């Protein structure tokens, strides 16, 4: 049997046409599986009629909503390749990703009209030849086509399936340790296997209603959308995370499960009188992207809500480790055991398996790991060795097989659930004419978990912290921008020239300025 991710939606629409598939928590829009599938088919057929070819890249610059979901499955059915775009990025960052991926068409929300207008004005800096604007009554740009009208031109009939198995499904960009984002390539097979392994591992019920507040350009939101289709459950989606709205939706929509990063769970506890909302329907929330503080787990357990820590990566299409229901209460601090169709190994620098409770690098193997980094064979070879994906994360595994993430081998900062690589910020800082050297570290943040902090060597004493922060604000998405800057005479480096981040953390141990 040949696998195509889009056929999952077609099959679910056939089996359960009237079951609620999608709820927009902000607007109240509701779609059954049949309605969602018909919209998907309309867009797919319209794209084919307009000449879309197999493996043509289609960028998705839209906030969480039905348009993102239908476009994703439309791409799947006809063999186009979705390129989900982080809508927090500035035009320079978007331009790189669009050009690097070879994206030919861009579906964008009206919220991003100014950024897209700037991109369109840059001409051949991108390869885009069609701009489709999702509009809620606002004027369509002179250069753009109306997305809703374009979709409506297509037939509701099932399109001819255009891709199978190891054909590309999507390219999702992650910030790169070299300063440039890398495109993670997932196929129909790897995407479907991620769904199968999560479905076989997580504690699911018929009729589950899943709260999905993460942005869909993240694998942590995109893969659960497909799981909902596979299992016939309902995804209740938030356009963007709002702590008070989360509690309201839990009560109104009778939410049973969901996934939120630790910062979101923490923000929800800060909502005044949050206990007035009925949360009795909730069994558990997954939480990942960073270790969940024990105090946070205990605060939710006191509400009879389990926090099941999940560990995964874009490169694994989501799954790596998950705590089960029992471990959520008895193995607090662990990110659990390997998912069902997943192997986990804690290895030393030579790839040999470590003894139990001995720290090493987390390696992941399974049919759901990425095919490659787009156009980066050397980075792919460094990351995938003999079928094992090297995560760069340090952990121990206890005698029962439970994994405890200790630290990041790489210098990644996780701020509010977003991956931020210091090298990318350092590369921007080094373009300032008065900055000689720069190092970026993560500082503890009560609000975001961690925040980037810049240590700078300047050649002009008139350069101020505000000057540096303003410079970064024009070149980096807000979540990547340093929250503070300090100036020193020399950046500590090892004999090979690498910045000694450990020394910088020791020199500047205080929490992040907010």
Task: Name the poorly predicted regions.
Answer: none
Q: Please tell me how large the radius of gyration is.
A: 23 Å
Strands ordered across the widest β-sheet = 2-1-11-10-12
User: Which class best fits the helix and strand makeup?
Assistant: alpha/beta
CATH class of the domain at 5-190: Alpha Beta
SS elements, strand count:
27
Tally of helical segments: 16
CATH superfamily of the domain at 5-190: ANL, N-terminal domain
Task: Briefly say what this structure is.
30% of the residues lie in helices and 25% in strands.
Structure report:
- The chain has 514 residues and is α/β, with parallel strands linked by helices.
- Among the domains are: 5-190, Rossmann fold; 413-507, ANL, C-terminal domain (GMP Synthetase, Chain A, domain 3, 2-Layer Sandwich), CATH 3.30.300.30.
- The protein is built from 16 helices and 27 strands.
- The strands form 7 sheets. It has a 5-stranded mixed sheet with strand order 2-1-11-10-12, sandwiched between helices. It has a 5-stranded parallel sheet with strand order 4-3-5-6-7.
- It is globular and about 65 Å long.
């Amino acid at each position: 049997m040949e696998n195509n991710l889009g056929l999952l939606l077609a099959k679910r629409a056939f089996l359960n046409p009237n079951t609620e598939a999608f709820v927009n928590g902000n607007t109240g829009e509701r779609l059954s599986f049949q309605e969602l599938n018909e919209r998907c088919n309309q867009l797919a057929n319209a794209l084919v009629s307009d000449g879309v070819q197999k493996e043509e890249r289609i960028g998705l610059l839209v906030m969480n909503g039905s348009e993102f979901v239908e476009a994703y499955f439309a791409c799947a059915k006809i063999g186009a390749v979705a390129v989900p775009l982080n809508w927090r990025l500035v035009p320079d960052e978007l331009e790189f990703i669009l050009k690097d991926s070879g994206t030919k068409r861009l579906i964008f929300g009206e919220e991003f009209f100014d950024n897209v207008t700037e991109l369109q004005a840059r001409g051949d800096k991108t390869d885009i030849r069609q701009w489709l604007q999702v509009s809620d009554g606002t004027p369509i740009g002179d250069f753009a086509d109306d997305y809703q009208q374009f979709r409506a031109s297509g037939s509701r009939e099932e399109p001819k399936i255009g891709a199978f198995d190891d054909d590309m499904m999507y390219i999702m960009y992650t910030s790169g340790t070299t300063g440039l984002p890398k495109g993670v390539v997932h196929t129909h097979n790897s995407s479907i296997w991620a769904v199968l392994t999560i479905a076989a591992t997580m504690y699911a019920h018929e009729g589950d209603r899943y709260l999905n507040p993460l942005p869909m350009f993240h694998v942590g939101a995109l893969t659960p959308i497909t799981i909902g289709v596979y299992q016939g459950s309902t995804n209740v989606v938030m356009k963007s995370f709002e702590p008070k709205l989360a509690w309201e939706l839990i009560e109104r929509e009778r939410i049973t499960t969901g996934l939120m990063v630790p910062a979101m769970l923490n923000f929800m506890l800060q909502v005044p009188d949050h206990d007035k909302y009925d949360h009795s329907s909730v069994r558990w929330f997954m939480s990942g992207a960073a270790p969940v503080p024990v105090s946070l787990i205990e605060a939710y357990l006191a509400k009879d809500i389990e926090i099941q820590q999940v560990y995964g990566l874009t490169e694994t299409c989501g799954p790596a480790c998950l705590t089960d229901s029992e471990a959520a209460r008895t193995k607090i601090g662990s990110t659990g055991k390997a998912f069902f169709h997943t192997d986990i190994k804690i290895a030393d620098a030579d790839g040999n398996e470590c003894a139990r409770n001995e720290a090493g690098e987390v390696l992941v193997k399974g049919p759901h790991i990425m095919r490659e980094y787009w156009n980066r064979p050397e980075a792919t070879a460094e990351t995938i060795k003999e079928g094992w994906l090297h995560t760069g994360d340090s952990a121990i595994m206890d005698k029962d097989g439970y994994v405890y993430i200790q630290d990041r081998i790489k210098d990644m900062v996780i701020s509010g659930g977003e991956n931020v690589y210091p090298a990318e910020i350092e590369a921007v800082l080094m373009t300032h004419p008065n900055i000689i050297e720069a190092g970026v570290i993560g500082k503890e943040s009560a609000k975001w978990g961690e925040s980037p902090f810049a240590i700078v060597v300047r050649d002009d004493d008139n350069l101020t912290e505000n000057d540096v922060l303003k410079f970064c604000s024009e070149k980096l998405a807000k979540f990547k921008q340093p929250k503070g800057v300090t100036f020193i005479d020399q950046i500590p480096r090892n004999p090979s020239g690498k910045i000694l981040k450990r020394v910088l953390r020791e020199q500047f141990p205080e929490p992040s300025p907010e």
